[in-house]
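Quick one:
INPUT:
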């Protein structure tokens, strides 16, 4: 599926914990943690706040994680991937499924039509393509059998330092 049908709307309060996101995206927890701390792919439902809290990733976040992984596998540098992801965010690309990402191993190109893909390949630049809609379906299949969590179900986790600060503020 290069430029296929629109895909279903997802519940914005349903997410997946870090280990589940890693499994679905095919990455290590160390990569997930590093990418979240450096702002490459941050969890959109719930970020980590203090010791013991758990990030909660939306389906779209996991889609982005898998795309980053695929680009890394083709030899694109993490720095170039950051540029591509930032460009997509700046442009406000909401429907990622209408995009095919092409790469020559050094740069990443965004194609929104079959003609753009053909032009890029004929120009000798693009050698690897990621049809985002196809990746979407792969992740849907992976996540179908993995545990899901609702944002409202999360326990409030407060670390020791936060408790001490609150106690000091109440004393004043």
């Amino acid at each position: 599926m290069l430029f296929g049908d629109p895909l279903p709307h997802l519940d914005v309060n349903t997410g997946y914990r870090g280990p589940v996101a890693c499994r679905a995206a095919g990455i290590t927890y160390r990569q997930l943690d590093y990418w979240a701390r450096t702002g490459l792919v941050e969890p959109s439902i719930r970020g980590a706040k203090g010791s013991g809290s758990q990030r909660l990733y939306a389906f779209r976040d996991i889609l982005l994680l898998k795309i980053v992984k695929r680009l890394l596998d083709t030899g694109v540098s993490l720095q170039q991937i950051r540029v591509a992801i930032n460009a997509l965010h700046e442009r406000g690309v909401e429907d990622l499924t209408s995009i095919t990402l092409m790469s020559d191993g050094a740069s990443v190109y965004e194609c929104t039509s079959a003609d753009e893909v053909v032009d890029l390949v004929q120009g000798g630049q693009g050698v690897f393509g990621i049809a985002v809609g196809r990746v979407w379906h792969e992740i849907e299949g992976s996540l179908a059998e993995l545990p899901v969590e609702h944002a409202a179900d999360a326990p409030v986790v407060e670390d020791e330092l936060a408790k001490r600060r609150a106690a000091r503020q109440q004393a004043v």
